[in-house]
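Friendly challenge for the regulars: who can give me the structure tokens for this chain first? No prize, just bragging rights.
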Amino acid sequence: MSTSTLIEEPIVVKPLKSVVIVQKVAKDYKSIKKVVDKNMVKTFSKIFFIKPKPDEIECESINLIYESFLIMNMKYHLEYYQNKNYTLNVDDNVVETTIFNHSLEPVKVAEKSGSHKQIIIESKELVIHENTKQVALDRKGRLINPKNLPSAQTEPDPIKFLDSYQTNVRHIEVSIPEILKKSIEKRPANIAQIINEQIEITSQILIYTPIFEARCRNLKSHEIKIIPVSAITGKIFAL
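First reply, four minutes later:
Bragging rights claimed.
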């Protein structure tokens, strides 16, 4: 019986359209500047007791950008044949066994307690595996925890709003096939032949969240760092 695995790309069934959400800005520039001023020295600190002086750090600019995140709910279906052997113990005086009109010769198996005869039945089993999964990713395709995204009011016309910003909007940079390759479950090792493999994307939500990015410079070392602050929570943005 062949043990070669038929490797093919799974069929991807996408939803009719993505849901696009643009979150509203809740914090003003002054409150964001206070957060940046408070965190500038800490951001440039190498170790907790080696840090620059406050007058050595300068905030050059603060820009509002919209960062994108993708949340997908998926159903995974895999239908395949697997090879499997079953062993049956038989009496020591048995020389042949007929099962479903197939004659099988027993083999002698040695064990510590002695030896006995058994027959090996080679089978090919049809297996169906199904699972559901949610995948949340950042713009670069890295997995994130969607619970860490801030909740906020949303813009009434997200597409029109994004079009008006254009260069300040950071869209998803990975394709759906790339995302699926990262998120799909590993296939079982004992697959003999894949009959059907399908990924259904049941929902696809694209979230754009506003972030103030402060460009800060160490005047002594000329090192530049970006401090991201959520325009919704007013806290350092990190997932």
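DSSP finds three helices and ten strands in the chain. Residues 81-124 form one domain. Your move, everyone else.
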